[in-house]
Amino acid sequence: MLEQLNAKDFGTPLRTAEQEVTLEIDGMQVTVAAGTSIMRAASENGVNIPKLCATDSLEPFGSCRLCLVEIEGRKGYPASCTTPVERGMKVRTQSPKLQALRKGVMELYISDHPLDCLTCAANGNCELQDMAGVTGLREVRYGYEGENHIVSKKDESNPYFTYDPSKCIVCNRCVRACEETQGTYALTISGRGFESRVSAGQDQPFMESECVSCGACVQACPTATLQEKSVIALGQAEHSVITTCAYCGVGCSFKAEMKGNEVVRMVPNKDGHANEGHSCVKGRFAWGYATHKDRILKPMIRSRITDPWKEVSWDEALDHAASEFRRIQKKYGRDSIGGIVSSRCTNEEGYLVQKMVRAAFGNNNVDTCARVCHSPTGYGLKQTLGESAGTQTFKSVEHCDVIVVMGANPTDAHPVFASRMKKRLREGAKLIVIDPRHIDLVRSPHVEADFHLQLKPGTNVAIVSALAHVIVTEGLLATEFIAQRCEEKAFQQWRDFVALPENSPEAMQEITGVPAELVRGAARLYATGGNAAIYYGLGVTEHAQGSTAVMGIANLAMATGNIGREGVGVNPLRGQNNVQGSCDIGSFPHELPGYRHVSDSTTRHLFEQAWGVEIQPEPGLRIPNMFDAALDGSFMGLYCQGEDIVQSDPNIQHVAAALSAMECIVVQDIFMNETAMYAHVFLPGSSFLEKDGTFTNAERRISRVRKVMPPKAGYADWEVTIRLSRRLGYEMNYAHPSEIMDEIARLTPTFHGVSYEKLDQLGSIQWPCNDAAPLGTPTMHVDEFVRGKGHFIITKYVATDEKVTRKYPLILTTGRILSQYNVGAQTRRTENVQWHEQDILEIHPHDAEERGIKDGGWVGIHSRAGETALRAKVTERMQPGVVYTTFHFPGSGANVITTENSDWATNCPEYKVTAVQVMPVSEPSDWQKKYTRFSKVQHELLDQAKQAISKTKTIA
Amino acid sequence: MDMQNLIHMANQIGDFFEAMPDREEALLGISGHLHNFWEPRMRSQLLKYVDTENGKDLKPIVVSAIRTHRSKLVSQH
Questions:
Q1: How far apart are CA A840 and CA A870, in angstroms?
Q2: Fewer Cβ close by (within 10 Å): the C or N end of chain B?
Q3: Which pairs with CB-CB distance under 8 Å and at least 24 residues apart come from A703-707?
Q4: What domains sit in chain A, N to C, each tagged with a CATH number?
Q5: Do B16 and A632 count as a contact with CB atoms less than 8 A apart?
Q6: Of A597, A617, A801, the CB nearest to B77
Q7: pLDDT band at A436 (very low <50, low <70, confident <90, very high)
Q8: What is the number of CB-based contacts under 8 A between chain A and chain B?
Q9: Mind listing the pLDDT tens digit for each residue in A769-792?
Q10: What is residue B75's predicted lDDT score, i.e. its pLDDT?
């Protein structure tokens, strides 16, 4: 048994109750919460009752009959997993009779199970094997010759795990995990009696079923029936390390199971506060990119982007980068260079990049990818509530009565949280979806939205104002809360504004396309349905009025008193793994760590003293401003760590032109990404498996990232930044990322109490963590808002300038899908491509028919910014007049089409609204042809670097 | 930097603050936003444009905010 790998399994879930129950188990007095099962009560007190169908992540099922016990005064042998404790109960877990019964059950199981333990992938980590040992099974009297399932065919269709029906004991754990944990209901038991077998979909191979490959079934399986292919290939791991997933903003905790420096599998951590033992296809399985052959492991330089790359030593690459940056500053001025902090790297790495920009570059030209996703969240929530972050824990959803999902698609983009949300919805919480698309949450197994406000893209603020109008004019305001907690004058101004007839649902109907009665119904439900929480995503922020919409959402929460306790709040579902963290630690050009403006002299002096430099009091350039300044000739050098702006940012022809105008671009990444094709220095990055640090997720939760293997290129990213800074003449001395966090904590009030020691002790910490909240802050704004009184802000709807015309009659909106992540640099290099091998354009049947577009056919998409071609998918998920695509593949050119139109407050691009025309085409667009040629040449230039090295080695 | 883009951005800021019932507050809001979020070279270019082109194509409220709070928008560095 590989006990070092597995957390203790108590058999049934933890129950919490004020009332306690004392009983006797095997003569021992035990006290547990009322509602606890006998199995768990025994387990918590060191008595492990045999079990197979029970596991503490799932509700008890009582099918395997191994956990039978004797209870004094009761007839028969009840299952301990389904029998709750009672006061004074006397339980016996072991007796000759129980042993005989359990042995008999095991004998039956084993009579229809392959006896290939020594060559089985689960050998040493198999609960069936354990139970055979525990029950003392020594023979199978029935023999093995009768009817059995041993020759059943293995399903190997899923790229990450196999399903071997011959090993199935029909314990239902996988089926229950799919239902209870994941909420997809893809699995069932087909057949009856002896014919019973686990079935994906309608007896389909897993890959053809609705299975989303979250791995919950594999995790729940007590045998090798559902088994990771990596374990089959490599064998069981020998040690494990707790770390944090590097994909989305949910920030799942994982146990990296290792053989030396090799990952065998990633298993969701049962004690992980963000995910509580659940995972999705990306975090659970799509980690192979970290060791992909495309990794660039040698530093490289070149003079021009038309030159071949030359592999050089770290010293030469860093010297070259530093001297180029200094040369540019000498020629064009101090403010002519800047840096981009990665939202995929750790807090500590982000902190060092912004520190280097401010201290070594001597300016504030630093930004991060939050610019193009949740910068409106930072702005909008700071203005209204006083802090640039979400207000709750993910667990808070368990207390929601009404859930509003606005401009977010959690089942695809935040799947593990979506599962928790769906669980609450199945328990009866009401659901309001505000989205132009018919996202999965609108109707999925056992979940159906009470209201789907299918608005036109670009009209979020109109719908928010209309909802507010109903709340104000129908007397649904939380008047006591507002009087106590909010600024009176601002509230009155807001109230008078939203009450205007032009903000009524009837007046807004023309703009939003949503019937007024639906808006009224949704508003009433939100205001009166109990604990109501708003969860929102990029469908809110990535608009010309993104910040206005965020403020409108905060207004709604304040107006109804839905803030400051569990089950309510304003919950931004943040995109990348550390986008919250990268904002927290000062990556914006106007803010020092802790969201303090650079013009605040007290804060600036604090950092100036700590860093020993003068810090500019003026904001620096934001990413889009950097591009404009580059084309203007005043911004000529960029240090870009772990972002791919040439794929992810809007109007990439404009981005490419800006990068082409610069004289030195230093890219630090694990792959030769699209941005690196315009670079002059390439510094190899390190994956999340190769370094220590922390990530901060969407619920402000800081979690440890732990190094499980040495950096493949020699240095972790934080070490590279230190070395570059030194060469720029600014010394940084840190022996370990914990020292960087200590500095952040020392200089940032909301982080004062954070340390690696405390993180190790608590598992994770939600900031603010300081003297006032030594264990962190799960729920914000409890007694008062961070800014004191809540500030209502008038949110007038202003139509976007990106308008449909006869030439561009459709609206394109972009988004993400489950199996791919962001620019796809990681997931495209995994088997996840089997689910999504290309970006496609979703179009409504009406729009398709009008244009002669067939499902699967090629279509050209034209906008004011550019054109590209994709395959069409004709689907009623879209409303007429709206088309949709993703941006996971560079050659798709989704961001060739999107424009630079952006949020008024933050310059966050309006990815969600681009006026386009779509027509059938027979060949790729001109941009795509040009891109293919450029990409080919760049790869040849990269190959030349490798060939030059191998030639040198041969000569030597 | 592209002047048309700066004009567009400034007008968007104007659109937001114009909804405030208190005009003085709106003017302060516009100038405050430009001060807090626009890099000095962007502000300088906008100020110069207002001076030389009389704020053509800029919303009147933006021109008014810039003129009223001009000193705040001049780079201190």
A1: 6
A2: C
A3: A703/A244, A703/A251, A703/A253, A703/A272, A703/A273, A703/A274, A703/A759, A703/A763, A703/A764, A704/A242, A704/A243, A704/A244, A704/A756, A704/A759, A704/A760, A704/A764, A705/A243, A705/A244, A705/A246, A705/A346, A706/A241, A706/A242, A706/A243, A706/A256
A4: 1-94 (3.10.20.740), 300-373+578-766 (3.40.50.740), 375-572 (3.40.228.10), 810-932 (2.40.40.20)
A5: no
A6: A617
A7: very high
A8: 73
A9: 999 999 999 999 999 999 999 999
A10: 82
Here the tokens at position A730 are 């600014």
Using CA coordinates, name the residue in chain B closest to A598: B36
User: What integer pLDDT is reported at residue A955 of this predicted model?
Assistant: 59
A949 has pLDDT over 70: no
Q: State whether A798 and B21 contact (CB < 8 Å).
A: no
ipTM for the complex shown: 0.98
Q: Is A332 on the interface with B (CB under 8 A)?
A: no
CA–CA min distance B4, chain A (Å): 11
With bands split at pLDDT 50, 70 and 90, how would you rate the model's confidence at A148?
confident
A837 close to A828: Cβ distance less than 8 angstroms? no
Inter-chain CB proximity A796 and B18 less than 8 Å: yes
Percent of chain A with pLDDT over 90: 96
CB atoms within 10 A of CB A488: 11
**B36 interaction partners in chain A (CB closer than 8 Å):** 590, 597, 599, 619
- How close, in Å, is residue B28 to chain A by CA atoms? 15
B residues 6-65 closer than 8 Å to A (CB)? 8-9, 12-13, 15-16, 18-22, 33, 35-42
Its domain, for residue B60, covers 3-73
Distance from C-alpha of A768 to C-alpha of A750, rounded to nearest angstrom: 4
| Chain A residues touching B12 at Cβ < 8 A | 544, 798, 904
* pLDDT tens string A265-305: 999 999 999 999 999 999 999 999 999 999 999 999 999 99
Q: Is the minimum CB–CB distance between A951 and chain B shorter than 8 Å?
A: no
**pLDDT at A954 exceeding the cut of 70:** no
How far B54 CA sits from the closest chain A CA (Å)? 22
Query: What single-letter amino acid sits at A405?
Result: V
**Per-residue pLDDT, A931:** 96
Determine the pLDDT at residue A952: 63
Is pLDDT above 70 for A306? Answer: yes
Distance CA A207, CA A838 (A): 17
Looking at the structure of chain B, the number of domains it has is: 1
Using a CB-CB distance cutoff of 8 angstroms, which residues of chain A are in contact with residue B2? 628, 631-632
What is the spatial distance between Cα A421 and Cα A411, in angstroms, rounded to a whole number?
9
- How far apart are alpha carbons A299 and A947 in whole angstroms? 15
Interface probe, candidates B12, B13, B74, chain A, greatest A C-beta count within 10 A:
B12
Q: Tokens 């201190």 appear where? A: B76
Taking the CB of residue A715, how many other CB atoms lie within 10 A of it? 21
